[in-house]
Give the backbone structure.
Amino acid sequence: MENKKCVWIFSFEYAGVAKVGGLGEVPANQAKYLSEQ
């Protein structure tokens, strides 16, 4: 993902916002990791 300025993440679950099936932390952690790169 070199030279990417914007990344869109679409999810039905997101930690702290909507958690239904137990994977709400995954998109949140991925977004946090990508923002630190």
